[in-house]
Amino acid sequence: MNACSCIYSMKEIMEVEVNKEKLERAAYVLKALSHETRLCVLIHLAENKEKSVSDLMKEVGCEQSLLSHHLTDLRAKGILKSRREGQRNLYSINNEQVIPLIECLLNYCK
User: Fold this and answer.
1) Terminal C-alpha separation, the chain
2) How far from chain centre, in Å, is Cα 19?
3) In what order do the strands lie in the sheet with 50-52?
4) If residue 51 lies in a helix (H) or strand (E), which one and from where to where?
């Protein structure tokens, strides 16, 4: 049994039409997730739904400029969304389907 069997079986995946566009999009999303800081941000947002940059800085443990770079990248790729509340930007996950993908990746790396 593979690490992702709790989500999809390979048979279910293969029943969905796989074309070049879907493969490119999948690679695009995986590339966006391919940095430990971005994964850490997403894990914290999955647990807490919405966080400010200052909250994420404390939890992720990186400088504001680097964190802002990662947040901008994740938002540009459609993985995060943000909203303004007063002087703060609050970030949250744009598509909840990314959460089981991250869980699957982390289970695979046990």
Assistant:
1) 14
2) 23
3) 50-52, 88-93, 80-85
4) strand 50-52
Q: Computed from CA positions of residues 82, 84, 68, 91, in that sequence, does the dihedral angle turn out positive or negative? A: negative
Q: What predicted TM-score, i.e. pTM, was given to this entire model?
A: 0.78
What pLDDT shows up at residue 110? 83
How many structural domains does the chain have?
A: 1
Residue 63: give the domain boundaries.
37-108
Instruction: Return left, alpha or beta for 86; rule: phi > 0 is left, psi -120 to 50 is alpha, else beta.
Output: left
What share of the chain in percent tops pLDDT 90?
A: 53
Q: What is the spatial distance between Cα 8 and Cα 47, in angstroms, rounded to a whole number?
A: 22
Residue 97 lies in a domain: yes
Residues making up the chain, counted from first to last: 110
DSSP letter (8 states) at residue 97: T
- Render pLDDT for 36-70 as a digit per residue (tens, 0 to 9): 999 999 999 999 889 999 999 999 999 999 999 99
Tens of pLDDT, residue by residue over 2-15, are: 445 455 566 666 66
Q: Is residue 82 within 8 Å of residue 90, measured between CB atoms?
A: yes
